[in-house]
Design goal:
By secondary structure, this protein is mainly beta. Helices cover about 15% and strands about 50% of the residues. The strands form two sheets. Strands 6-3-2-1-9 form a five-stranded antiparallel sheet, with no helix packed on it. A four-stranded antiparallel sheet has the order 5-4-7-8, with no helix packed on it. The longest helix has 18 residues. About 15% of the residues have low confidence.
Length: about 130
Amino acid sequence: MLNRKAIASVIAVGIAAVLVAQTGVFIWEARMSNGAASGKAKYKFANRTGRQIQEELEFEGEDLAPNTTYLLTLAGNQVGEATTDGFGAFEWTARNRGARRWNAGTGTPASIGNANGIALSGTLQPRQ
């Protein structure tokens, strides 16, 4: 007969190991450039023991067309839009707490585009 306490202990240790492996703060970035235009997408995921999951998504662009609205996409899904200033620059940030909203990570495509097409694109990589 199997010892139920021993089995329960092994299962509890295994579950704890999985949770510890997924706790912490993780950051991925995609650096993008196209001619003079440049930008980046940054995804931050925080899973701390005893706290809610926190996510932060940032897009930045510069030397794009001035006073132009751009669609921001992550994994092929539009996550927002931003309008450049008179110098062709913008910064955009969104935050989320609770259940994962964006579910991004290594290799996730990110892009900045408009009706004329994709202006900048790249894939998220772990931040060094």
